[in-house]
Amino acid sequence: MNVSIDLHNILPLVVFLVVLPLSLYLGYRRGEAERAKLKDVALKLGLQYSEQGPGRPSLDALAIRGGDQLRTQQRLRQLERGGVLARVMKSLSPPAVTGKYNGFAVDIRTQRRDKKTYTVFTVSFPAPLGLGLKVRSNNFFRRSFGASSGQRTETGDEAFDKAVFVRGDDPMKLKYLVKRPEVRKALLDAYRAQSDTVIDDNAIVCRVQKGLPDYLAYQKVLADLTMAAKQLAGG
User: If exposure means fewest CB atoms within 10 Å of the residue's CB, which of 3, 44, 119, 181 is most exposed?
Assistant: First the structure.
């Protein structure tokens, strides 16, 4: 009984001293490996790598808001320069690769969601397309629920219609667009390669769950997505 009580009392200490540090260390190592990979991708594809986390205010902005926030951030950044905290904070800031690829603004970053890690690619159009465009993979679930959210655009291309769900605010204009074989081919190539892709008037966003081994795999995804963007934006 005493042993049971002792173990019960010791367990939280074991978690705090062993399990938590080990989890942080393994997460840090995974983050470092991901950073090294993204640095290589940026270097070889002519893009920019950044470790600045999103939404972190500058010291000038904090000074305008109030002295307490400014002093807190100054102290935190002093601690970061000490070494350990800097590495921990860096591991919590998702890295990003940004720049122009094939003429389009692109953004690559990692995202943790539902205990899974994704690589998220965003290819932005130079200007909104103005079509009310919604393009999805035409799997069973999207066929079931998409019908209630707007009329789909049929092309008569069986392979395309089976794979891709397309709708928009101007069905006639959209039908004319996807009637072009090069547009259908570009979209089909993008969705065959990465089915978890969403396209609207502003951008193409693709989430890849499986690990991408090297810069060539990233290059292939970007090539497919930017080709689709080029065709949708008017070639």
Answer: 3
Cβ-contact 28, 87 below 8 angstroms:
yes
pTM above 0.85, yes or no: no
**Which secondary-structure segment (H or E) carries 92?**
helix 84-92
Please answer whether residues 137 and 201 qualify as being in contact, where contact means their C-beta atoms are separated by less than 8 angstroms. no
Residues 6+ apart with CB under 8 A from 94: 53, 54, 109, 110, 111
| Joined tokens for residue 22 | 């080990």
Q: Judge whether 187 and 138 are in contact, CB under 8 Å.
A: no
β-pair partners for 119: 110, 208
